[in-house]
Amino acid sequence: MNGAEAVVNFLMQKGVDVAFGYPGGPVLVLYEAIYKLKFNHILVRHEQGAAHAAEGYAKVTGRPGVIIATSGPGATNLVTGLADAMLDSVPLFAITGAVARKDTGRDAFQEADITGITEPITKASYLIMDEKKLLSIMEEAWQLTTEGRPGPVLINIPKDILALEMPSEQTPLRPFRRVEPELKKSKDSIAEVISMLKAAKQPLLLIGGGCVISPEAPASLEAFLKQAPIPTAATTMGIGTLKRDHPACLGFAGMHGSLQANEALDQCDLLLAVGCRFSDRVVGNPKKYNSNTARKIIHCDIDPSEINKNVQVDLAIEDDAAHFFKALSAAFRKAEEEDKADLEEWLQVIRPWSDRLRETKAKMQQVITRDYFKPQVPLLPEYVLSEIAARYKGRDPIVVTDVGQHQMFTAQYFPIESPRSFLTSGGLGTMGFGLPASVGAAFAAEGRPVVAIVGDGGVQMVIQELGTIDANRLPIHIFIFDNATLGMVRQWQSLFFNEHYSQSELNNNPDFVKIAEAYKIPALNVETPEDLTQALDRMQATEGPFLCRVFIRTEENVYPMVPAGKNSDEVMMPGMDG
């Protein structure tokens, strides 16, 4: 077989059931192999769409999402998706074509140093110049995507290697080994963790994306919380690890997190953080947060480079979230066997703290229900999301968002029923993520509903992916929240820039319904509560994709809000604007 057939054969042997990509000159021989070997490939309408679609697939399945692109602009169009995947720990396997080896470095047509460009935003980026190492490098790269903290890799293959007959024997690579300072593992730290927990009166468990990524972490977490019902908050990427109605769940913490979660983050005397990286959207001012010397911090993460990077901790543990929670559960069982009364006494100590946070949660829910869930015109996003969520309750939907106000409203008001079911761009905050990510999610959904909630700004960056959705008749239910503005930009301009709405108004939005219909996707405008009811009825009675353009009140802001560079003790609520 030639190099291209070897690549496709490699993917099939790895069990890859779908790849997302776009052809071009240097990869035509690869697309010939895709045709001959009947490999399942989805033609997107833009390479960035391929990257986000692969992210959506990987986020749902936990398996690497595969991307194929040509050289030059085809490869550079992947950059945003790769950077997004790197920050959110998404396993991607990107294959790009390159100019022939004899032309490399000569500014040949459509040549770009994608290897150099992507080195900072991938776990590894390879340029293959020796055909004898093709499969060995692909094997190493494949392992890297999911080893430790998952992430993207890129393999750049010159077109002459793709066309060459492959040697039957490949040159093996030296085993890949990362040299890093050793940190304590769970088994070496649990006694100290138990000791610190028992000394705490106001503990908080903070769970991040690592608790979603680790397959057994959600079940292990629930088992631990049955033994020790510690108040638990999530980061945005940790949403879905714990069901919202779980007694210990406080919602998500951070810039637009719940009042009770942020109150706990501010006032806890012990913070046990697992699988999170303390981003600036969770702790805006790390120096101030660390100034509370009475607060102890335990940080467990599979990536040692994240520990002590933003927040200085008292106990560092390098481990997978599931391993940690299993070890902690075992230690609590042992502690209960040895001295059940002592453990019960500690649980009684933290109960008033837990009750106080639950009371805050209940009061906040009453305010929300009273003020925001009323049917009115213009529609409020809180009301719309509650109505949408009610239609999918119990069906375990995969909820995909773009970036902006609608993203935070969705995180607040759409209950996520299982892990790997809330797909969003966290670290990079990529507008345009939502629509193509829903494409990948639909291929991974296995019959579950896929709900895409996107903004009128972000959707216009990738609106051509409606063509991908139509071509494959993907049953994605798309809601475009149209407030005729870049909502989050407008909110910041309203609060911090004297209402100077510089370049944030979208008063000339196109007719999204007509655009959808041009792609043969049924669509409706939604302006009133009655429109919303009718649209949801029709959407759920229609096979295949459906789009709703929902007109939202322009002035509606997302609250609570912790301003940038501030911590959760400086939260803003309505009436505190400016």
Architecture overview:
There is one protein chain. The protein is of the alpha/beta class and 578 residues long. It has helices at residues 3-13, 28-36, 47-61, 73-76, 79-88, 114-118, 134-146, 159-163, 186-198, 209-213, 217-227, 259-267, 286-290, 321-372, 381-392, 405-413, 434-444, 466-471, 487-496, 512-518, 529-540, and strands at residues 19-21, 41-43, 65-69, 92-98, 124-127, 152-158, 203-207, 232-234, 249-252, 270-274, 296-301, 315-318, 398-401, 422-423, 450-455, 476-482, 523-526, 546-551. The strands form three sheets. Strands 2-1-3-4-6-5 form a six-stranded parallel beta sheet, sandwiched between helices. Strands 9-8-7-10-11-12 form a six-stranded parallel beta sheet, sandwiched between helices. The protein has a six-stranded parallel beta sheet with strand order 14-13-15-16-18-17, sandwiched between helices. Helix 3 (47-61) crosses helix 17. The protein is globular and about 70 Å long.
Distance between the first and last residues' Cα: 66 Å
In the residues, how many domains can be counted?
3
Would you report the number of β strands?
Answer: 18
- Biggest β-sheet: strands ordered side by side in the sheet: 2-1-3-4-6-5
Which architecture name of the largest domain does CATH use?
3-Layer(aba) Sandwich
User: How many helices in DSSP terms?
Assistant: 21
CATH domain fold name of the largest domain: Rossmann fold
Which band does the percent of strand residues land in?
5-15%
Shape: globular
Secondary-structure class: alpha/beta
Mean pLDDT across every amino acid position? 95
Biggest beta-sheet profile: 6 strands, parallel
Helical content band: 40-55%
CATH superfamily annotation of the largest domain:
Thiamin diphosphate (ThDP)-binding fold, Pyr/PP domains
Low-confidence stretches: none
CATH class descriptor of the largest domain: Alpha Beta
Rg, Å, rounded: 25 Å
